[in-house]
Amino acid sequence: MSSIFDSQVFNANLFFPRADSSPALAGTDEYYIDAGKDARIHARCHPNPDAKLSLLFFHGNGEIVSDYDNLAQHFSSLGAELIIADFRGYGKSTGSPTLRSTLEDAHIIFDYLKKGEVFKSIVCVMGRSLGGAPTIELCSKRSDIQACVLESAYADPIPLVERRGLKINKTTPEEDAVFNNSLKISTVKCPTFIMHGADDFLISPQEAKLNYDNAGAKIKTLEILEGVGHNDMMMNPSYFSTLKRFFDSL
Fold first, then answer.
1. Is the pTM of this model over 0.70?
2. Where residue 103 sits, what CATH number does that domain have?
3. How far apart are CA 6 and CA 112, in angstroms?
């Protein structure tokens, strides 16, 4: 049985790739990771020798690795070494993105970086918006991740489909096992921090609450930040301070 999540119409409406022809940022480590099927994923590490942890970051839709170049120092000040990866077709990555390939690629990226001894002893995976899907995928399947952070992430895949202008009444057990964040997060056992904007009208704060309620971690925190929506979370004065408290607790 075919799934709407694998359909061309769904994925073409879901992803908004942007290319990046800018030169590599001085002082960064660049990785090009073979993901098969003519796809190569670009990841960028902003070295921080004093960092307590590695932060593998999956960005939101329409964003690319270089969008975070000016933010790396903020994460560095929190004691994190930022490693940010693009989706297929985004930035300097090749291939065509699908939601399924995004989840599969997350494991390829993680394995490559781990095998290359890029990670520090503590690894936190963080996803913003659509990047929450590969984040939950990794954290639900692996025991070698010490922390999970979700920012403005979706929970239920049915509203995700409806936001693409499509319609489904229910998902199958097979689809839920792959694409339903609110179910998969029940097997995330590492400390989990969920943050969401109170004024997010794209992905409702109720989805953050659903992810929080279903999260399998014994240590979990939900922060609904006032005065911000989906794309301006960092404008809340407590954005980085709440992240720092979580990182410091690891």
1. yes
2. 3.40.50.1820
3. 25
pLDDT at 1: 60
Q: What phi, psi does 215 have (nearest 5°)?
A: -60, 135
CA triplet 38, 140, 106: central angle to 5 degrees?
Answer: 20
Q: Tally the domains of the chain.
A: 1
Tokens 């290319």 belong to which residue? 19
Domain extent at residue 45: 4-249
Question: DSSP string covering 153-211, please?
Answer: ----HHHHHHTTT---S---HHHHHHH-HHHHGGG--S-EEEEEETT-SSS-HHHHHHH
**pLDDT at residue 36 in the model:** 85
Check if the beta carbon of residue 193 is closer than 8 Å to that of residue 246: yes
pLDDT tens, residue by residue, 185-222: 999 999 999 999 999 999 999 999 999 999 999 999 99
